[in-house]
């Protein structure tokens, strides 16, 4: 017994109507056929009331009408088949989308009842006296809602002039309407070649229709690729996706990168180093071309930041404590050490003291990742966090445990904070320094802001705890004020105010003796004084 592949023609014809996923494929297939026939102008008319669609082109026309009803058999000439590899299913869409198809070309005309055609009933081709130049296809019973709104998008990159209901379409992304450059995969338009406003958003067209696009893009800032149809194929039946899209997508991106390389190399020869860097640095970084900076003395200012405010932990992405420099330091300043460069990760529990040292020393925070590994500036970057750091309290006054709403840490009051990293040392006298679970508070610090070096106040759900931050900052500031107070009565009174003792009826009218620094932990004792003793003390005071 032997078996072989067989085709159920009736089932194939019946199920073919479900092959196309988009009703507008009907229009693109007719446009595609007109283009392949050498048309230079295509007119589309659609009457939404009568549901009649007419497509007229000025191409070579149709000689063999049997090609219209020969499924999966391309009727195009050998050159077209080699160039575009048509599938032979385009006109079949008309049979499923319309109730009647009238095709006129040259001296012939056929009026097709689509139901009869799909039943494989023979249909007469009639001669006509007055020849029709090109091909005219008239479809009845076609439901294409919103075609007027969709047609411009469908024809965005189409290479042939198209009119819809008498109005020419702009086809703004057609190759003839853009500044294009050649590439091995086909013509390419790069966004930002003049001003450096690059984009990674890319619209890819094959045979005039879009086969790849981002979810969101701006027409004014998008790359456009018109693929060589000899190298790329789209999937049946709608031809709106590339075959092996993941593989081809990588190839397209690689070719775009190569196009940017050629563009940047030319710009480098035409512009001054300063203008070249200012205009194209972001593009070089985005497209992996930063090695073009290796032989230049000029650096982009985007790589350098001054520490302009108190460094704090912040998981929101905002770093208000640094500011990009207005002008990048010169090569001479960097190589001489006049502009010392350091790399620092975002402020955290382990590196806050490094940031304080860098701020005190006036170091520039440098984004070394933004340069090629072999760039000359890389030799002058100091990775400060790799240097062991020591933090010491100068003239320590006292240390206490602080328990806030969100953070708990040790607070050390001192005259100054000494920070050492290798051979370098600085003394901080006006700002708190957080390090290894300890906050050092020098004589000039009163704000409580140091809690922000101990925590970012962000929970496990990435929610910023603003109220906890405010409470802990205020609590630390209040603690610092009390610990530094020289009036014991004022200090005790401020502590008692927080307890709101008046809300406890049991305590009303009572007098206590409080001794601080005596008794068992926590280091105080409280004794209730008898009312008679209080009265006696009052009499003595009066006498």
Report on this model:
- There is one protein chain.
- This protein is of the alpha+beta class.
- The protein folds into 4 domains: 9-168, Heat Shock Protein 90 (2-Layer Sandwich); 175-270, no CATH class; 301-476, no CATH class; 500-542, no CATH class.
- Helices cover 27% and strands 25% of the residues.
- It has 14 helices and 22 strands.
- The strands form 5 sheets. It has a 6-stranded mixed beta sheet with strand order 3-4-2-1-5-6. A 5-stranded mixed beta sheet has the order 12-11-14-13-15.
- A hairpin with a 2-residue loop joins β17 (408-421) and β18 (424-428).
- α7 runs antiparallel to α8 (273-286).
- The N and C termini lie far apart (132 Å).
- The relative contact order is 0.06.
- The mean pLDDT is 88.
Major beta sheet, strand line-up: 3-4-2-1-5-6
Number of helices: 14
Major sheet summary line: 6 strands, mixed
Q: What is the CA-based Rg, rounded? A: 40 Å
Taken as a percent bin, the fraction of beta residues is 15-25%
State mean pLDDT (0 to 100 scale).
88
């Amino acid at each position: 017994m032997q078996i072989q592949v067989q085709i159920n023609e009736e089932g194939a014809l019946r199920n073919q109507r479900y092959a196309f996923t988009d009703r507008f494929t009907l229009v693109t297939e007719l446009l595609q056929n007109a283009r392949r026939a050498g048309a230079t102008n295509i007119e589309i008319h659609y009457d939404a009331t009568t549901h009649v669609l007419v497509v007229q082109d000025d191409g070579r026309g149709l000689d063999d009408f049997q090609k219209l009803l020969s499924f999966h058999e391309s009727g195009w000439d050998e050159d077209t088949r080699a160039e575009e590899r048509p599938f032979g299913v385009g006109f079949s869409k008309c049979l499923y989308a319309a109730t009647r198809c009238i095709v006129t070309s040259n001296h012939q005309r056929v009026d097709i009842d689509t139901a009869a055609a799909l039943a494989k009933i023979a249909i007469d081709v009639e001669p006509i006296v007055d020849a029709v130049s090109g091909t005219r296809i008239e479809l009845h019973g076609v439901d294409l809602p919103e075609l007027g709104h969709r047609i411009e998008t469908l024809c965005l990159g189409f290479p042939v002039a198209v009119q819809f209901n008498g109005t020419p379409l702009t086809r703004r992304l057609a190759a003839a309407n853009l500044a294009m450059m050649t590439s091995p995969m086909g013509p390419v338009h790069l966004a930002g070649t003049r001003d450096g406003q690059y984009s990674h958003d890319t619209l890819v067209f094959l045979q005039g229709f879009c086969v790849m696009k981002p979810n969101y893009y701006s027409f004014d800032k998008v790359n456009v690729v018109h693929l060589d149809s000899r190298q790329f194929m789209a999937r049946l039946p709608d031809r709106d996706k590339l075959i092996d899209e993941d593989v081809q997508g990588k190839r397209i991106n690689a070719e775009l990168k190569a196009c940017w390389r050629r563009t940047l190399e030319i710009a480098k020869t035409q512009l001054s180093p300063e203008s070249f860097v200012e205009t194209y640095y972001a593009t070089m970084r985005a497209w992996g071309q930063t090695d073009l900076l290796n032989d230049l003395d000029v650096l982009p200012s985007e790589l350098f930041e001054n520490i302009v405010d108190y460094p704090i932990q912040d998981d929101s992405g905002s770093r208000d404590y640094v500011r990009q420099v207005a002008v990048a330091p010169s090569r001479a300043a960097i190589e001489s050490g006049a502009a010392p460069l350091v790399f620092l990760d975002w402020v955290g529990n382990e590196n806050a003291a490094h940031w304080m040292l860098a701020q005190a020393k006036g170091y520039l925070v440098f984004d070394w990742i933004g340069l090629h590994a072999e760039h000359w500036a890389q030799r002058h970057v100091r990775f400060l966090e790799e240097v062991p750091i020591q933090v010491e309290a100068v003239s320590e006054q006292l240390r206490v445990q602080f328990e806030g709403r969100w953070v708990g840490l040790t607070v050390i009051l001192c005259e100054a904070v000494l920070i050492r990293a290798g051979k370098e040392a600085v003394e901080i006298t006006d700002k708190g320094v957080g390090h290894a679970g300890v906050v050092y508070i020098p004589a000039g610090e009163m704000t409580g802001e140091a809690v922000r070096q101990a925590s970012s106040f962000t929970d496990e759900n990435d929610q910023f705890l603003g109220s906890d931050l405010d409470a802990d900052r205020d609590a630390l500031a209040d603690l610092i004020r009390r610990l530094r107070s020289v009036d014991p009565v004022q200090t005790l009174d401020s502590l008692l105010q927080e307890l709101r003792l008046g809300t406890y009826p049991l305590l009303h009218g009572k007098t206590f003796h409080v001794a601080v620094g005596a008794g068992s932990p926590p280091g105080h004792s409280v004794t209730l004084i008898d009312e008679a003793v209080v009265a006696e003390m009052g009499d003595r005071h009066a006498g």
